[in-house]
Amino acid sequence: LAKNLDYLATLPAETADGHRVRLWVNTGLMADVVRSLERGAEGVGLYRTEVPFLLRDRFPSEEEQREIYREQLEAFAPRPVTMRTLDIGGDKALAYFPIEETNPFLGWRGIRVTLDHPEIFLGQVRAMMKASLGLDNLRIMLPMISGIGELVSARKLVERAHAELVDEGFDIAMPPLGIMIEVPSAVYQARELAEQADFISVGSNDLTQYLLAVDRSNSRVAGIYHSLHPAVLRALQEIITAGHEAGTKVGICGELAGDPGGALLLMAMGYDVLSMNATNLPRVKAALRAVTKPEADELLQRVLPMHSPQEIEHTVRDYLTEMG
Ligand code: PEP
Ligand code: MG
């Protein structure tokens, strides 16, 4: 692939035979926004709201949050911005909200925390919706969903916040509400979840960690964390099938989407949105533009029966090398 990929920013994200894929970005800081726009990002698939929370020494107020979210929404408008509700716990700790647990990855994380603290959740979604006034490009996404009940409870809260804002005189539409699929139990309920969510997005970092029982932040076991493990590929396929059967758009916002080989396989599976760090966007776009859909399908069919993650990795790497 060419070394200087700047020319790609304005070219469409499509395969050589015209199969379109949405290439979106993951953001957290305003600096990510600038880089993303320069690289021609078509939307934000994951805005990690915990980033501004991590940079402070106390919870930001609703008004402070509104200002931060407004900047993100405005910078990308009219392109969609997917704001994830607070995903703390696990590897993301707020100094001013300590969580002491022996097993944080299996503990109080993501939606579990905010459903137990509806005041945090409501303040956050109110700030997001207020920030979207006049822009209409907000999507709200829930992290760490492990069952239907959490989606139902969270939707009630979002609807309540929306109704309150309308009562207060804000003229805003109810934003699409989606979920992350990153807990194995959600894979097995993907069909039902997809029927009740407006979109679904795979968090392949956590999903891989939980499927393989390998701590994503523990270097001792990094050698057995395989994002192209056959079990992960099978889960990714089941999610897309279930999502599309329900008529719901399916994206992915884990690191796998930003890996050119991973992106080819995901595109072949039919993923509608690949959301990645802006740094990876040009590389991924170049790889997609260099293949046809049938060629990527063929690569996918070649690796799916393989039992060894290393064999899959080598096959994909060799394929990319041959492509140039
Ligand atoms: C993921 O788990 O894949 C993901 C995108 O979320 P995070 O990395 O923020 O946990
Ligand atoms: Mg995650």
Number of strands: 8
Radius of gyration using CA atoms only: 19 Å
Helix content: 40-55%
Bound small molecules, deduplicated: phosphoenolpyruvate, magnesium ion
Mean pLDDT: 96
Elements, N to C (H/E): EHEHHEHHEHEHHEHHEHEHHH
What low-confidence regions span 5 or more consecutive residues with pLDDT below 50? Answer: none
* Largest sheet composition: 8 strands, parallel, barrel
Strand order of the largest sheet: 1-2-3-4-5-6-7-8
Distance between the termini: 5 Å
Strand content: 5-15%
Protein name: phosphoenolpyruvate--protein phosphotransferase
Subcellular location: Cytoplasm
Family: Belongs to the PEP-utilizing enzyme family.
What would you note in describing this structure?
By secondary structure, the protein is of the alpha/beta class. The protein has 14 helices and 8 strands. An 8-stranded parallel β-barrel has the order 1-2-3-4-5-6-7-8, surrounded by 7 helices. Helix 1 runs parallel beside helix 3. The radius of gyration is 19 Å and the shape is globular. The model has no long low-confidence stretch (mean pLDDT 96). The structure holds phosphoenolpyruvate (PEP) and magnesium ion (MG). Magnesium ion is lined by residues 143, 182, 203, 205-206.
Lay out the secondary structure:
Elements (H helix, E strand, L loop, with lengths): L21 E6 L2 H9 L5 E5 L1 H5 L7 H15 L4 E4 L26 H6 L1 H14 L6 E5 L5 H20 L9 E5 L2 H4 L2 H7 L2 E4 L1 H9 L17 H16 L3 E4 L7 H10 L3 E5 L3 H9 L3 H11 L5 H15 L1
Helix pairs in contact: 1-3, 3-5, 5-6, 8-10, 11-12, 11-13
This protein binds phosphoenolpyruvate and magnesium ion (MG).
